[in-house]
Write a structure and sequence with these properties.
The protein contains 7 helices and 7 strands, in the order ββαβββαβαααααβ. By secondary structure, it is of the alpha+beta class. The protein has 2 domains: 74 residues, no CATH class; 80 residues, no CATH class. Strands 1, 2, 3, 4 and 5 form a 5-stranded antiparallel β-sheet that branches. The longest helix has 14 residues. The radius of gyration is 17 Å and the shape is globular. The relative contact order is 0.16. It binds adenosine-5'-triphosphate and magnesium ion.
Length: 180
C-alpha cells in the first residue's frame, strides 16, 4: 500500500527585494497511518509546509519538489478542481488562529453544515445533526446554543475547537494541525 503522503525535497520559495527567500528548504517525509509531528522554531516553515501540501501557496510564491504525492497521486499535477475535491475530503488543515479561518458573518452551525453538505450533498437536517454531533465530539458544552452563535461570541479555545470540528466533519484521512 502506498503512503498517504510522500514528500521529497519540498521547497517553497518567495521572491523578495533581497532575492529569493526559501521559506521551506528541502524537507522530506512520509506519512502512513501514524501521527507525524514537525517541530521547528517560529518562522522555520512548518505552516508553509502544510499550505504547500494543500496547494495553498499564493503567487508569487512557488513550490517545487522531487516528489509530492497524496496516496500515490502527484499533488503538483492536480488541477485546482481536483484539489478542491481533495481538500476537506482527504486532507484538512486547522490553522493557528480561528479569526482567519471562521467566517465572521455566518453562524457557527451554518459554517459546519456548509462544509459537510459541500462534500456529501447531505440534507440540511442531516447536516444539522452531524454538526451538533461534531461540536459534542470536541467537548463544546451546549452545542445547540453554539450552533446559533457567531465566531466573535466564542472564546479563543472554543473558536479553535469549532475549527477542529469543521475540519473533522468530512472525516479526512489526513489532518494537518498548524499550531504555531
Ligand atoms: N508571502 C511571503 N513572502 C516571503 N516570505 C514569507 C511569506 N509568507 C511567509 N514567509 C516566510 O516564510 C517563513 C516560514 O513561515 P511559516 O509560517 O511556515 O513559519 P512557522 O514555522 O509556521 O512559524 P510559527 O511557529 O511562528 O507558526 C517565515 O520566515 C516567513 O517570514
Ligand atoms: Mg505556523
Amino acid at each position: 500500500m502506498s503512503n498517504l503522503l510522500d514528500i521529497e525535497n519540498l521547497t517553497v520559495t518567495f521572491p523578495t527585494r533581497q532575492g529569493e527567500f526559501e521559506a521551506v528548504r528541502g524537507i522530506s517525509f512520509t506519512l502512513g497511518q501514524e501521527r507525524l509531528g514537525i517541530i521547528g522554531e517560529s518562522g522555520s516553515g512548518k505552516s508553509m509546509t502544510g499550505r504547500a501540501i494543500l496547494r495553498l501557496i499564493r503567487k508569487p510564491g512557488w513550490v517545487s519538489a522531487d516528489r509530492m504525492e497524496l496516496h500515490g497521486q502527484d499533488l503538483l499535477a492536480m488541477t485546482e478542481k481536483q484539489m478542491q475535491g481533495e481538500r476537506g475530503q482527504e486532507i484538512s488543515m486547522v490553522m493557528q488562529d480561528p479569526k482567519f479561518s471562521l467566517n465572521p458573518v455566518m453562524n457557527v452551525g451554518n459554517q459546519i453544515m456548509e462544509i459537510y453538505r459541500f462534500h456529501t450533498g447531505a440534507s440540511r437536517k442531516t447536516a444539522f445533526a452531524k454538526a451538533v454531533e461534531m461540536l459534542e465530539a470536541v467537548s463544546i458544552r451546549d452545542p445547540l446554543r453554539v450552533m446559533k452563535s457567531y465566531p466573535h461570541e466564542m472564546s479563543g479555545g472554543m473558536g479553535q475547537r469549532i475549527m477542529i470540528a469543521m475540519m473533522l466533519v468530512t472525516e479526512p484521512k489526513i489532518l494537518i494541525a498548524a499550531w504555531g
